[in-house]
Write a structure and sequence with these properties.
By secondary structure, this protein is of the alpha+beta class. The protein is built from three helices and six strands, in the order H-E-E-E-H-E-E-H-E. Helix 2 (74-87) runs antiparallel to helix 3 (118-126). The longest helix is centred in the middle third of the chain and has 14 residues, at 74-87.
């Protein structure tokens, strides 16, 4: 009996040697091309998990918000969500973690080809509830990699 799941776009998997050039199998690459021309990689500190996102942008904004311990709570996320909505920002990736040494960190990656409102972004995100320090890094497409 033929199952309907075979017609669905499900996850794919491949294994490649870890080198400075990771090669995506051509069959998978062809399916990815319509989704974006560039690949954004997020590599967590001590984790073995890598996350990749497709985008047509040539620049991303990597934001780190440093908070008090145990501050990744509802009031922080409500304030953050409202601020991002006000700024019209949608993230490709975000994560949050609290460490034993009394700090929490929220990180987010955003498509960022138009930085005309960068001063407004910095000002507003620094005012999110519980944020002690906000760090911003503009990451440009590196065609030499």
């Amino acid at each position: 009996m033929h199952s309907d799941y075979e017609s669905k776009k499900l996850a794919q998997c491949f294994i490649a040697e870890l080198s400075s050039e990771i090669k995506i199998p051509p069959s998978i690459h062809e399916q990815l091309k319509p989704l974006g021309k560039n690949l954004v990689a997020v590599i967590p500190g001590e984790s073995k998990k890598l996350s990749f996102f497709l985008t047509n942008c040539s620049r991303v904004l990597f934001i780190k918000l440093i908070l008090d311990k145990s501050s990744l709570n509802e009031s922080f996320f409500t304030s953050l969500r409202r601020t991002l909505q006000k700024l019209g920002m949608e993230n490709l990736f975000s994560t949050g973690i609290c460490f034993k040494d009394d700090i929490c960190v929220w990180e987010g990656v955003f498509e960022f080809d138009d930085d005309s409102n960068f001063p407004q972004i910095k000002e507003n995100l620094a005012k999110v509830t519980h944020v002690n320090k906000a760090k911003f890094e503009k990451i440009e497409l590196n065609k030499d990699l």
